[in-house]
Amino acid sequence: MQNDDEFSEARVKRASTQCSHLRGWLVAQIEYSKVITMVGPLKREVRRLTQAANIIQVKLKEQKKMIYNIERAIEQYAKEYEELMTQSGKFKHEIEMVGTKVERSVNLLKSLSEEQGRWTKESVSLTQQLNTLPGDVLLSGAFLTYIGFFDQNYRENLLKQWKNYMKDVSINPKANLSLIEFLSHPEERLNWESNKLPIDELCTENAIILKRFNRYPLVIDPSGQATQFIMNYYRDKNIVKTSFVDGNLMKKLESALRFGTSILIEDAENVDLILNSVLNKETRRTGGRKLIRLGDQEIDLSPSFQMFMTTRDPTFNFTPDLCSRVTFCNFTITLTSLQSQCLNHTLKMERPDIDEARSNILKLQGEFKVKLRNLEKQLLKTLNEAEESILNDDKVLNTLVELKKDAEKIHEQASQADKTWATIEKTSNLYQPFSLATSRLYFVLEKMSNIHYLYQFSLGFFLEVFHKVANKDNTLLQDEEDPMKRLEILSHNLYSTLFQRVSRGLLHEDHLTFALRLAQIRLQQINHDLDEDQLAFLLKGETIISGSRNLRNSIPKSLLTDSQVRQLEQLSDLKSFHDLPTHITKNLMKWKKFVSSNEPENNVPPTWEKLYKDKTEMMFAKLLLIKTLKPDRILSSGSQFIEEVLGKGFLTLPELDLKYIFESESNCKEPLLFCAQPGYDPSTKVDELQKQLGIELRTIAIGSQKSYENALDAVTFASKSGTWVLIKNVHLSPQWLSELERLIHSLPSPSPSFRLFLTTEFHPKLPPTLLRISQIFVFEAPPGIKANLLHTYLSLSHHHDISVKPLERARLYFLLSWFHSIVQERIRYRPLGWSKGYEFNESDQRTSLDTIDYWINKIGAQKKNIDPNQIPWEAIRKLLGDTMYGGRVDNDFDQKLLEGMLQELFVPECYDMDFKLVDYQQGENSFELLMPEGNKYGHFLKWIENLPTSENPTWLGLPKNAELLLLANQGKSALQKLMKIQNVYEDLDEMNENSLQTQEKDRRPTWMKNLEKNTKQWIPLLPKKLPSLEGSKESIEDPMWRCFNIEINKGQKLLQIVSHDLKQLSLLCKGKIKHSGYLKNLLKNLDQGLVPDNWKQYPIDDKVGVDRWMLDFGRRIEQLITICKSKDLGRAKGIWLGGLFDPTAFLTATRQAAAHAKEWSLETLQLQVSIDSKEKVTPQSFYITELVLEGATWEKNALNVTDKISTPLPKVLFKWVKNTEIVQKNIITLPVYLNSTRLELLFAIDLPIPNNLSENILYQLGTAIIIWKKEL
């Protein structure tokens, strides 16, 4: 019905509303019936379920009750469990705490045990330190107070002496005390190194002194390293640098005193006395202020004020007053410190990996030591500050752990460092010989000033050369990878570069000396040292003490002279030359060829050369042989030896290239000093360079006060603008040069293109400080007549026009050029050419040309030709001889020589076609040189250029053998100079009798053994006693007796001094006495073969060695002994005039005796000489022996020309006669000199000459009498 559409609610409601309601009721009933039908069973089920639920509810209540009881039980159990767990947690925590404490205790005990072991050792060490503390402190105090002034070698010796003195008074310092470790901390030293302090022992010691000074330091700093360090180290304190010559010094010092900044004052040699109050720290307090007086005002003194004074001159002697007010600190570099610097630089370039590893190890070792020391301090501080148990203090335990880790790390690092260091040392040792040789090279430069005052070289110059060679950009190293080959290239490049750079500033005669020293160092570098005995024989002067063998009878006199045999005897005493005499006697023809050869170094008998397997040893042995038998070839043989050691062409110098030097080898802070001999003007070199580069140049000639100011202003301006300054003739004011040097040093930031050029002649007062900062170039007159004449004649065009009429002018110009060249060239042969090195120069030539122009213009102005006879020859000769050239001559016999040359050249005959410039007639050696034809500049120039290159001393009027004498003297001089630059012992190790007696073997230095050997030879040469001269009243009135009495007194005093010194030296060599300063000076002189200054109490040739001097002195004493025994005081037997201490006093005494005996006036007496006379002596006469005639020979009772340099004269009778008794006919007046140096003219004598011999020839030959000859 519900689903019937017809009965839907809507249709019913449309049909009838009431029916719709009825329909609703019906529908509801039907639904209700359905529900009733459905609910009935459900109700029954509800009732059933309700009954079941009631049953279950009862059971539920029972279960809840049971659950409640269980929960109560659980709660009780939970509470009990919680209590148990709490107790368990407490137990676990306590267990953990106990475990931790146990672990900490174990670790603490372990750590403290380890620290205990280390600290126990330190405690033992501390006990030892406490025992030695007084000695350590005393030694350290003395070190800080006194030792700073000395160099490293002297410091070591001084410390040894102090320790010995302290040991004598039972004050013992620590046995292996390191003052560096004792007085400084590692962190301090690391800080110093970071501030550019060189890493070596000397500089570290000096840094300690600068850190711990009480009196303000005065630093000796030649290299500038100390100044750089101080400026870096005190940079944070606003340190100010000034100078004692700075006008603002007082303002800067006042500011530093007031505000507590540091100040560094340079040029301490100019210290101002106004600083005395500051140096003495003379302060006073006013209220709360601390005041110090500076000049006329009082200034507040800040406690942080520090002052440093420096000087760059290590030779300056400060006053004792200043020395007592300052603390000296000497930064003068030493061999060891420079070797370390060179090694470091070489490793950086060649093995940067090794250098880096080495630096890292040193750095890490220092850092870990610093960290360990800081941790120790922190641990002690933490333990001290711990308030509870240290087991509960994590800070203490962490510090201990960290300390342990660092200690282990340090140990591990040290172990690893030892392995790495072994590798580093092995690699470094490969470069050690090179770095040692490099250091030795610098100290050779330091010693070069012993040869000549001009040879001053700075450390900066040497390092600049070294760095240029040891540089990655060195093209010689680019294609080579092998380390040893690279090192060999470096060595050769360093030697050649240094020789080339240094030789620019050396005289040509010193090139060989310097090269020989370089060769010696090179051989030391490659472990090929020269035999010490052979080297000593080469360096020592000619000895006159015969060797242990007598060879005169076995070697013919036609082969070797007595002097050569004596030298051969000495040479044969050397082990390697022991068989040489035998070889000579068995091969006489071969050795005769050697002796007579012009090049004996190339003609040594081959059978002798084959005895040497090593070529270097053979070449050195050849040099010794040449020195012994052919000294005139020493230079040539020495050159061969040098090229064998240092390479072919080593001595060949490249042409001077000033442009390259300007661009690559000079800088704005380094003056270029051109030093020239008189007659050479090097300023033209600068002018040419300026024109080539186009840089502005200002030239100033020194001479007036205004020029000094202009020069300083010009240098200041040019240093800012980058231009050049040329200051000429600075030798005219050497004192002002110190001011110039200070200005150069104080220039703040000069322009890189700025250059300062200086020209000077040789002058001994040139400031060493200026020479050391300058590049020096030496210019000498060209050697040889041709070169000299060419230079002289070419210079004419700069000042005079040779083409000016009359035509005769050109010939006189050439004649003057020839004369000027001869005059200058003879200087090379002094004392034979001239007695002195007169400074004839171009100004003499120019003024002479002006004189010639004056007279020629006066008699032939506007004329094409003039008659030579009209030329006033006498006036020209007089002006040239007395004024232009003669004005420089101060020896009468040199004046005669000059006038004689003028008389031969400036004569009318010089215009003849066959006029002889040179006319040497001596048997087969005759030679003529005619005056050139022509009257134009080109004619004479071509003639000069065509002159032969092989010249002869006869061109100068000298003996033919003069060249051999010159070469021999030059060779001997080179060896003497080589001795002066040897690095002989610098200190004397103290040796006592006990130490020597306990030695199984003689371990003394070679020089000491040689000296002992020499003293044994010298002592027998001296008489034990010189008796006094017996006198009476009559004898006292005799001038001769008084003269010899004075001689004997001098001899007695000097004999006592020499004998005592030799005995002391003998005892010292045996170790029986200690050395003193006096003995040390004696040792240094005697080891070099020089005569000590204390023994030079009479004039003698400076070139005489100590062997020759010893025999000479012994002979002088023997002569005085003979005179004492003689009734006539030796007049009849003959007196060795050169053997008297004062020969002029003896001549005066004889003159007085003759005047007294004859009752003549002294003014009327004149010496008359008779050679080889047989007359008996009279009161007015006496015999003189051992006179030597130089430049001539005595034949047929007259002087004659000879090629021999010297000839001994027989006994000569000297007789005082009246002037009226002497008949003047065909005689020449000859000078009598003390010795061959001709520095001391004693008197003159007249000797006959043949009628056909001109006295001018003899004067040109250098004829003179010598009373003392070096060669016996």
UniProtKB/TrEMBL annotation:
This is Cytoplasmic dynein 1 heavy chain 1. It holds the Pfam family Dynein_heavy. Residues 969-1266 form the Dynein heavy chain C-terminal domain. Residues 810-962 form the Dynein heavy chain AAA lid domain. Residues 60-87, 369-420 form a coiled coil. InterPro entries: AAA_9, AAA_lid_11, AAA_lid_11_sf, DHC, Dynein_C, Dynein_C_barrel, Dynein_HC_stalk, Dynein_heavy_D6_P-loop. Residues 2-166 form the Dynein heavy chain coiled coil stalk domain. PANTHER family: DYNEIN HEAVY CHAIN, DYNEIN HEAVY CHAIN, CYTOPLASMIC.
